[in-house]
Amino acid sequence: MSAAKGLKIVLAVVAAALAHVTWAADPIVIGISTTLSGSAAFQGQHDRWGAELAIEQINATGGVLGRPLKLDIQDNACNPAEGVNSVGKMLENKDLVAVSGAMCSSVTLALMPVMQRANVPFLVSSSSSPNITEGAGVGGNTWTFRAGPSDATMGVALARYLKSNSPFKKIAILGENNDYGRGGAAALTGALKPLGISVNSVEYYDKGAQDYTTVLTRLKLAKPDAIALYMVGADQVNFLRQYRGLGMHTPITGRPELDSLVEDHIKSGTLSGATSVFQYSSQVDTPANRAFVKAFKAKYKEDPLLQAAITYENVQILVAAIKRTGTVDHRAVREALVNTDYASMMGARIKFDQNNQAHNNVVILKVVDGAVKVVATPGS
Amino acid sequence: VAAFILQLIANGISMGAIYALVAVGLSLIYGVLEIVNFAHGEFLMLGGFVAFFAVGTLGLGYWPAVLIAAGAIAILGLLLFDTLLHTLKPDDFQKGILLTMGISMILQNGTLYLLKATPRSITTQYGYDAVEAGDVSLSVLRVIAILVALAAIAGLHAFLQYTRSGKSMRALAQNRFAAIMVGMRPRVVARTVFVIGCGLSGLAGGVLAPIYTVDPLMGTSYVFKAFAIIIIGGMGNIWGAISAAMIVGMTESLAGGLGSVVLQDALAFVIMIAMLLVRPMGLFGRGMRV
Fold it and tell me: What is the pTM of this model?
């Protein structure tokens, strides 16, 4: 071997080693598809914050497999077509390990086949449509995992609570005209019927609508004992303002978001007696949740919403799976996710069933004396 | 059931008035300047935020807040006209669309960046009071919205009909060439029109803010419906826009109440398509006949 050839080999080896070193320091990318525009952008912001807080904490303790974590956050505008675009770029990134999304159920359902074709693990964020569970796991989409509860199990939890704690005999349902609203309305109707509570009116509205006078006039005519809401963000605030403006007092139930956005209505008594079944509450009294709420408030000056909590835990679950398998290979991570056993801040352990659906605890919230209280934390 | 129908009619009138208030400024700007102002919804949104800060931060009452909103957006219109829009030539139709769309995106995303997506609510001295007549009730704020819409339309009509500045606007809308021939200065007239149009959309934002909520993306939901309305009424015809707004408001309320609420939002566009098929120039045809 000539000296020149020897030197070439040495240089090649050194170059390869250097390349490996830089590769090892390359960040591991987690894709986040969420709603950063439109009437649910407020919730999407919390989705994003939950992910950002999680990777900040993980990176502060040395990252994963010696590599830092990085987010690729894209807006899906709560629209299935935009949702598919939102992951298109992410999927071309060789450092992408998994995607968490897509907040809106309709978008999540549109992304499931895309993620399956790409063979990339997909952790469902706060989407609660029962159709997601039906399509995931054994015999279906094995790349989709949902740590949060579905509206089917939340509907059962709420129906049981209302049966034993309320005098309601007939309930009207108002939902978004999409997979969330329609799925939620169907799930609640199915859960109430066997318990002897009837559903006497089901109304849908187009997401982002400003005016609810027509639907309120119809609800007034139906005279239900309670109105169950499946609506989020600005829509719900608008609805409640107009509900109050019409002087209505029919109790609210379903899944209203009893958060800082409607504080005014909680304090004023407009929402007095309202109940809600939810995936999460910042009031849940577990050490893990207290620590999360404290860190979140210190960074963002707001109490975390469920979107923040679920995406925060999604990142933790994913990181735990990567650590268990010791690689970022998509298939290996998916296999590792199947064996997840994670202690959720909601108090239950997250383990995926054969439909890749976890059964975390849910909360029943109630507005009592101008404040929101956790009145039950049933399993789902 | 009679009370139910009456309530739907009352709702329809209030929705129609709100649409009219939003559409009239858009129609005015198109009628005289032939600029399709895609930033109209964002002016409305900014008017809403001005009212929000006037009430929430400065602690002002309803009326000062609404007037400040109209004034602030009129000033914004003046600044935008003198920096950007005056460069548009009369036949720069596409350039006008691109320019106003660009302004719309900058305003929307700028507001989103600065103020976040959190929807804000304003509670004024009128609170959640309602005016009741039998079984029909309408919130005080909606009654005020109807009155403000009427006053704004009457004021605009008087301005166009009786003032020199208003007459020159009509002249320019009817025959631009002849108007210039007799010594009218198109830029001055155009500026006044744009400022009034913006002021009206700020006024609409201020009036709507306490009824609904204010957030950076609220403009979009109004602007497309307002476009449908001015197409139904005849592009650039103010009376057409007002009639179309009432037709759309009433149809939405009745069809939504008696049929299905989900179809409500599509109705304005269904009427628009039907109008384009049957009478492409709109209810009142093109041109501004006031």
Answer: 0.81
